[in-house]
From TrEMBL:
Key words, A-Z: DNA-binding, Phosphoprotein, Transcription, Transcription regulation
TM annotation in the entry: none
The species this protein was found in: Allokutzneria multivorans
Response regulatory domain span: 4-119
Pfam families: GerE (PF00196), Response_reg (PF00072)
Protein name (Swiss-Prot/TrEMBL): Response regulator transcription factor
SMART domains: HTH_LUXR, REC
Modified residues (4-aspartylphosphate): D55
HTH luxR-type domain mapped to chain residues: 138-203
Statement: the UniProt record of this protein carries the keyword DNA-binding: yes
């Protein structure tokens, strides 16, 4: 089945370019376009796409607010696609529930792969974004994750699903989930994307680069 995508960007030329880039992939269907966060929230609720490809800075309701509303409503997963790579923008988007963060210079093939990966629940971070998080000043206390918890988070950062992680490490899928839940608690987060971002920022993980 195709991944159904809603495009949210205030620039018509950018939306047209994204539509052309994604439409050539038989596994992706662009089901709608919108130009601001409020419209994105409404259309996501109506169309129920698999993924919203979300710009951050738009007039009116911005992409971060829209992301939080869409994720909270369970309307779709959200993948940020923007030109902005400041620490503040990245963390706000991830904290709002975005499944990943890409920059607009991402090549077409990589963008299409990221759309499919984010739609199925994988964490997607552009290498420059991961690098920025790694170079952030580390907080005095690093969460005391076990070696196995770090290993599991490292595989999550590479985009592996829970079944793939279980197979790779030779453990049960339930054990993978247990390690992730314990990691969430120690890192003070609620999902796998936030766990990876926080672990990178605190130096618990190195960039999957």
């Amino acid at each position: 089945m195709s991944v159904r995508v809603l495009l949210a960007d205030d620039h018509p030329v950018v939306r047209a370019g994204l539509r052309d880039m994604l439409s050539v992939d038989p596994g992706i269907e662009v089901v709608g376009e919108c130009s601001d966060g409020a419209e994105a929230t409404r259309m996501a609720a109506e169309l129920r796409p698999d993924l919203v490809l979300m710009d951050l800075r738009m007039p009116g309701t911005d992409g971060v607010v829209a992301t939080a509303k869409i994720v909270a409503a369970g309307s779709a997963k959200v993948l940020v696609l923007t030109t902005y790579d400041s620490d503040r923008d990245i963390l706000r988007a991830i904290e709002a529930g975005a499944a990943g963060y890409l920059l607009k210079d991402t090549p077409r093939d990589q963008l299409a792969q990221a759309v499919v990966a984010a739609a199925r629940g994988d964490t997607v971070l552009a290498p420059p974004i991961a690098a920025r998080l790694v170079t952030r000043v580390r907080e005095p206390r690093t969460p005391a994750l076990t070696a196995r918890e770090v290993e599991v988070l490292g595989l999550v950062a590479k985009g592996l699903s829970n079944p793939d992680i279980a197979a790779s490490l030779g453990i049960g899928e339930a054990t993978v989930k247990t390690h992730l839940l314990r990691s969430y608690e120690k890192l003070g987060v609620r999902d796998r994307t936030s766990a990876v971002v926080t672990a990178l920022a605190k130096g618990v993980l190195v960039s999957p680069g």
